[in-house]
Amino acid sequence: MIKEYALDPQVMASWDNFRFFSSQFGCQYGRMISKFPSGWKRIVFELCQNNHGISEIQLKKIEVNLYQREFDRKFVKNSRDYVNSLGWIENALRSNQNKPFHAIISSEVRESVQLVDDIDDSNEKWKVDIGLPVPRTANHFVKVFTPFFLLANDIIFVEPHFDPHTSKWYRAFRIYFRKLFENGKRYRKIELHTSAKMTPKIFADEFIIKFEQFFTENYGIHVYLWERIDNNENFHPRYLLTEVGGLRIDYGFDDISEDETTDISLLSDIVYEKRKSNIEESSTVFNLVAKILFSKKNTRLTYSILQ
């Protein structure tokens, strides 16, 4: 549902191409631009500056678009080697051998390259599913979540019905946590947001019983316990949120049965911004009852109730 594309900076060095491709990338479309190399934006802007076919007004619009916060959410920041002595296309082909892109888009005719003139809705490499029916098991869900786990630095589970006492929940989240921890990635944050159905201490004690052996040393997670404010929004929809976008999981994260399915879909930018702001600590939509930090050191999972 979310794919990494290598987009040749030279492709973006025209007004028409810049407008088209900048409007077609982002998590809500399932297409992400690989920040390859790390100075990709600078290279694009310099190429645009040197293209005399781009007017001053167009160049200014390109600059504003490139350097606004929303454009950064179109990127995948993967650690890929880039050799400055080689050209972009040679670097992309080398990187593709070690860690394949979904597609390489360029105007250079090379094997394994999608030519820019061939990019349209009929191109199989351009088509991306933005919603899928998925069997309601954690093993099926985690296959959908894994690209987000690998590409993002912030992982936020929003599951109002999570209960550490109940097997369908702890079975599922053991699988999600294991997948997060096993790739060795150091996340900026991992959070779980759920309803305050019990006291923070009861929740924390049971969480440790169910998850201690499934945590990896030196990893931590914040759990937020929320309650509804009278006459305000109901804390019900379920989401997987990251710093670049997110997913809606209609029936939730719990591990149920292969005989049932739930729809999982990418969030539009408008829905993403709204739902992410709803669970900030300063939220006025829900009331934050407690924030609990779980961390594992010296083989023991411990907790601190921070609020």
Output the keywords.
307 residues, alpha/beta, Endonuclease, Chain A, nine-stranded mixed β-sheet, five-stranded parallel β-sheet, 31% helix
Task: Describe the 3D structure.
By secondary structure, this protein is α/β, with parallel strands linked by helices. The protein has two domains: 3-118; 131-305, 2-Layer Sandwich (Endonuclease, Chain A), CATH 3.30.870. Helix content is 31%, strand content 26%. The chain is built from nine helices and 14 strands. It has helices spanning 15-22, 40-49, 56-66, 69-72, 88-98, 138-151, 167-182, 200-211, 269-278; strands at residues 3-7, 31-34, 75-76, 103-106, 113-115, 131-136, 154-158, 189-195, 220-228, 239-241, 246-249, 257-266, 286-297, 300-305. The strands form two sheets. A nine-stranded mixed beta sheet has the order 6-12-11-10-7-8-9-13-14, with helices on both faces. It has a five-stranded parallel beta sheet with strand order 3-2-1-4-5, with helices on one face. Helix 2 runs antiparallel to helix 3 and helix 6 packs parallel to helix 7. It is elongated, with a radius of gyration of 22 Å. The two termini are 36 Å apart. The model has no long low-confidence stretch (mean pLDDT 94).
**What portion of the residues fall into strands of 2 or more residues?**
25-35%
Q: What is the structural class?
A: alpha/beta
Distance between the termini: 36 Å
The tally of helices reads 9
Compute the number of structural domains. Answer: 2
Described by the principal axes of the CA atoms, the overall outline is elongated
Low-confidence stretches: none
Helical content band = 25-40%
Largest sheet: 9 strands, mixed
Q: What is the CATH topology of the largest domain?
A: Endonuclease, Chain A
**SSE pattern, N- to C-terminal:** EHEHHHEHEEEHEHEHEEEEHEE
CATH architecture name of the largest domain: 2-Layer Sandwich
Describe the oligomeric state of these chains in a short phrase: single chain
Mean pLDDT, rounded to whole units? 94
**SS elements, strand count:** 14
Q: What radius of gyration results from the CA coordinates?
A: 22 Å
> Numbering strands along the chain, what is their spatial order in the largest sheet?
6-12-11-10-7-8-9-13-14
Q: Please write the CATH class name of the largest domain.
A: Alpha Beta
